[in-house]
Design goal:
- By secondary structure, the protein is an alpha+beta fold.
- The strands form eight sheets. The protein has a four-stranded antiparallel beta sheet.
- The chain is elongated and about 75 Å long.
- The protein starts with a strand and ends in a 10-residue tail after the last strand.
- The N terminus and C terminus are likely disordered.
């Protein structure tokens, strides 16, 4: 790889080398009803990955949609700062909030344009355009006016191939994460329910009321401790690490104290599994219940046990409210729930097995984040012509 000027590169307007779809189709027609539908919600920000697709018929679509084929790129014109763009390998229909885009193959490689549209440079351009209009979307004319760097076609193809390799590395690692998550779920269903036993453990599990396993901590908050929040997917985390505000702002004097090793749950969302283990001292909203595990309870085991499907169903059964959205699990009702726990030594061993899988998942997530950062930096160099590649070389030379 060598550093030099953008020789043989030129800037062209987006609209001179692409075509944006015009004219919509009726998704209820037989020829479109069984086609997969892509909306902004199906495109992952910044990666181009597509998920959660259903057919137009399954989505019960009635309003006009765009038609795309496997040569198109689908770009979400709503909130372009979210960078939702994909290159589907199939034909289908897409939301009116997206643009299907085709390249002029005489000048532009589809994979190169896709990578460029994922780049920080393109995101900055489209975001600035949408901010100028006062609406969180970019219109057709503004998109067509954006300048796109245009290297020779062979170089475009080489650049796209290099960046696609990074995408494949991320995809493979994410598949590995998904496999490990499935393994963890299977282990939880077996180990936490006593269906499978670890070597050396044979004794019966004791059925005990939750109130005999966990007391309630009701101490007032301590100044300067971090404010913690319960999430369904991430457990108990610092509130300032969450982009959206999850609780109303309260003085810390109104918060409850949490000590490391406590279990905290959201009484309004415990039926959805909203609980987590405290790994540091902190304070939480009084809308939460803070549980202090008894000496014969391993806190890490309990945190996994509370995520078991059967346990979450018990939490729902003991919650009270006129509708599902108003269900509350107060401590007095929680304390009456019968829970079957193994002896402390077995609790610790089960927690050790499950936490080892979690560490593997976390390491792979860190790898995905690292590869994405590296690709982003590489895009800044390759897609602006600051670094050039040899199109007749099999590898990129340093």
């Amino acid at each position: 790889m060598s550093t030099r000027n953008e020789k043989n590169w030129r800037l062209v307007r987006f609209g001179t080398v692409t075509k944006i779809a015009s004219g919509m189709i009726d998704p209820r027609r037989d020829e479109y009803a069984d086609m997969l539908h892509i909306g902004p919600e199906n495109i992952q920000s910044g990666t181009g990955q597509i998920s959660g697709l259903r057919t137009a018929k399954e989505e019960n679509l009635v309003s006009g949609k765009y038609r795309f084929d496997k040569a198109a790129i689908v770009f979400s014109k709503i909130r372009p700062n979210l960078n939702k763009v994909c290159a589907p390998s199939f034909s289908g229909v897409c939301s009116a909030d997206t643009y299907p885009i085709w390249v002029d193959e005489n000048y532009l490689d589809r994979s190169f344009l896709f990578q460029y549209m994922l780049s920080p440079t393109f995101v900055r351009e489209t975001t600035a355009m949408s901010a100028r209009t006062g609406l969180p979307k970019i219109n057709r004319d503004d998109l067509n006016s954006i300048k796109v760097p245009l290297p020779p076609l062979p170089e475009q193809q080489k650049l796209a191939a290099i960046l696609s390799n990074w995408d494949r590395a991320v995809e493979l690692t994410e598949k590995l994460i998904a496999a490990k998550q499935r393994r963890k779920q299977a282990l939880m269903q077996q180990l936490l329910a006593g269906k499978a036993r670890l070597p050396g453990f044979t004794g019966a599990w004791k059925l005990t009321k939750a109130g005999e396993l966990f007391s309630r901590r009701s101490e007032p908050g301590v100044p300067d401790l971090p404010v913690l929040s319960v999430t369904i997917d991430r457990g108990l985390i610092r509130r300032d690490s969450i982009e959206r505000k999850m609780e109303s702002t309260l003085d810390t004097e109104q918060h409850l104290l949490v000590r490391s090793g406590d279990i905290v749950y959201n009484m309004m969302r415990m039926w959805q599994g909203a609980s987590g283990l405290a790994r540091e001292d902190g304070v939480v909203s009084p809308a939460y219940v803070v549980l202090k595990p008894m000496s014969h309870v391993d806190p890490l085991f309990a945190s996994y046990f509370f995520k078991l499907r059967h346990t979450v169903k018990q939490f729902q059964d003991y919650s009270f409210g006129l509708t599902k959205d108003r269900l509350r699990l107060y401590y007095k009702d929680f304390a009456a729930i019968p829970l079957r726990f193994p002896p402390p030594a077995e609790q610790r061993q089960i927690a050790c097995v499950l936490s080892a899988v979690d560490r593997e998942i976390d390491l792979n997530r860190a790898k995905v984040a690292r590869v994405r950062r590296q690709k982003k930096g590489l895009m800044q160099q390759l897609l602006t012509g600051k670094l050039r590649v040899s199109v007749d070389a099999e590898t990129v030379k340093g």
